[in-house]
Amino acid sequence: MASTSDIRNGLCIRYNHDIFKIIEFLHVKPGKGPAFVRTKLKSVTTGKVIDNTFSAGHKIEDVRVETHKFQYLYNDGEFYHFMNEADYSQIRLLEAALDRPDLMKEGEIVTVLINTEDDMPLSVDMPASVILEVTATEPGVKGNTATNATKPATVESGATVNVPLFINEGDKIKVETAKGTYKERIKE
Length: 188
Prior knowledge:
The chain is about 0% helix and about 55% strand. It is mainly β.
């Protein structure tokens, strides 16, 4: 058993007969009244995100998890297939277990959280950022740079990311996986 002081991003807890992963939290201590923790929980079974508030000192049931490195192999439409780097065993996960499946390219190394009680995979943690090649984007219009102007670009994984006007097709860019936003252009 853990309490609200143990809450952190990525912690898996058992709540309302389901397992949830904490994706955001904020400790709030108002001037009047007791302290509480405002959280955003993502169900590892359905992918649904809910907001919940725990009062300070509330006991929560944490789920013991192990992390393993897996390589993303392919997507067959319904399932995403991964291979364990240590023993080459393969697992498949539904899209709901993934945070940003549109930013994963084949061969990407990810961290998979596995429940130690029943050895079931719970969720996939992407690296903080990924490097992807721009496959399609409109050319930037000269003189349209009064402010931080951006344009949509499609990357090799199929995701659409807003990029600055100077990015062209074939450029490699670094994308922040938590927000799905452009970070920088990679020079080769």
